[in-house]
Design brief:
Order of helices and strands: HHHHHHHHHHEHHHHHHHHHEH
Shape: globular
Structural class: mainly alpha
Keywords: Coiled coil
Strand order of the largest sheet: 1-2
Number of strands: 2
Pfam families: DUF6596, Sigma70_r2, Sigma70_r4_2
Protein name: RNA polymerase sigma factor
Largest sheet: 2 strands, parallel
Distance between the termini: 44 Å
Low-confidence stretches: 93-112
Length: 427
């Protein structure tokens, strides 16, 4: 690999980590998430031009922020409506030379975590459709491409692209404030925000595309936002449920990959590597959620499922019957072919692969799962357990052709080869 290629990979890695903070800080100044994203992208273009020549800075995030904010300052100074902007933003945009007022540099760098939370709530404003809220926040906070978001939603990429463009335009036209809502408005927008954080965490936990099995920085962002939300809404069980689920899932991160970054599936993981502190935090959050009266919501149920795995010292000790019951509750609460597929896996572990396969086969006509690689992956696993190796091989090959994650593709191809070897007549 050439030095230039290594630098470009480093730039894109930095972008994944820093873009959300960059966009959030810029949005606080320009009050326009669409323009903030454009300014951040401009800074990325400058980095792509300069860093291959000068090398990656010691603090690349600060470099990107400095480049973007100076462009923002220049643009605002050139803007014919600068005086009105000064009135709207007050001291934030007064001359940097005026030592008696707050420095723009300091304002951009202050309260990074709060800015991220404001960015989520801004993108989840009721003026947008629920689909647009989630897509825009994933784009701005998670740095996901439209293709990755489309795969997360199982919808065409052009649909997601249109949602994002229209959402940014709508927010700008409606002059949506860059703030965290309070009171009744907070409750109204909480569901969308939780959905966004959930999808961001999942993208980090199992990346839909790329060379890495996981993107830990997305999990960390989602966890931080979830914990902040739990402080803002202490009596909301679903907030604690989501935090509990994320804490427990995150506890497995070290055990999910091997020395070369290869995926290690749940039942094959070394549970001694699971982070017990995160597990304890997750179980405590689940306990807080379950103390609130009323029926359990989807995040509390998913946290309860994760807790069943966390409490099992070995894979064999897992209470799969209980997990199957919880998935049954979940599918009643939010009917979904993906949830039904997960329930089929739990049923197979509790009552045998034949029973699980029956449920999976019933999902084959489902249009939304046509390009969902986990459907043939699960089916291949069940067929392999039943000794139907040639059929299993074909399913693993199909799953490998559908996934966009290179690590996962290699794993599925290896499983297909194992089935092919098992299917050959023994001499």
């Amino acid at each position: 690999m050439t030095a230039a290629t290594e630098t470009q990979r480093a730039i894109h890695a930095v972008w994944r980590i820093e873009s959300a903070r960059l966009i959030a800080g810029l949005t606080r100044v320009v009050r326009d998430v669409g323009r903030a994203e454009e300014l951040a992208q401009d800074a990325l273009v400058v980095a792509l031009e300069q860093w291959p020549k000068t090398g990656v800075p010691s603090n690349p995030g600060a470099w990107l922020m400095a480049t973007a904010k100076h462009r923002a300052i220049d643009e605002l100074r050139r803007n014919q409506r600068l005086e009105r902007k000064h009135e709207e933003l007050g001291h934030e945009l007064q001359a940097e030379q005026d030592a008696s007022t707050p420095d723009l540099d300091a304002k951009l760098d202050d309260d990074v975590g709060d800015d991220l939370l404001r960015l989520v709530f801004t993108a989840c404003h009721p003026v947008l459709s629920s689909e647009a809220r989630v897509a825009l926040t994933l784009r701005l906070l998670g740095g996901l491409t439209t293709d990755e978001i489309a795969r997360a939603f199982l919808v065409p990429e052009p649909t997601v692209a249109q949602r994002i463009v229209r959402a940014k335009r709508t927010l700008a036209e409606a002059k949506v404030p860059f703030e965290v809502p309070r009171g009744p408005e907070l409750a109204e927008r909480l569901s969308s925000v939780l959905g966004v954080i959930y999808l961001i965490f999942n993208e980090g936990y199992s990346a839909t595309a790329g060379d890495d099995w996981m993107r830990p920085e997305l999990c960390q962002d989602a966890l931080r936002l979830g914990r902040i939300l739990a402080g803002l809404a202490p009596n909301e069980p679903e907030v604690h449920g989501l935090v509990a689920m994320m804490e427990i899932q995150a506890s497995r991160m070290r055990a999910r990959t091997g020395p070369k970054g290869e995926p290690i599936l749940l039942l094959d993981q070394n549970r001694a590597l699971w982070d017990q502190l995160l597990i304890r935090r997750g179980l405590a959050a689940l306990e807080r959620a379950e103390k609130v009266d009323g029926p359990r919501g989807p995040y509390v149920l998913q946290a309860a499922i994760a807790a069943c795995h966390a409490r099992a010292r070995t894979a064999e000790a897992t209470d799969w019957a209980r997990i199957a019951e919880l998935y049954g509750e979940l599918v009643q609460l939010m009917p979904s072919p993906v949830v039904e597929l997960n329930r089929a896996v739990a049923i197979s572990m509790a009552y045998g692969p034949a029973e699980g396969l029956r449920l999976v086969d019933a999902l084959l006509p489902e249009p939304s799962l046509k390009s969902y690689h986990l459907l043939p992956s699960v089916r291949g696993d069940l067929l392999q357990k039943l000794g139907r190796f040639d059929e299993a091989r074909k399913e693993f090959q199909r799953a490998a052709s559908l996934t966009r994650n290179e690590r996962e593709r290699k794993l599925l191809q290896e499983r297909a080869e194992t089935c092919a070897a098992s299917a050959r007549p023994q001499s």
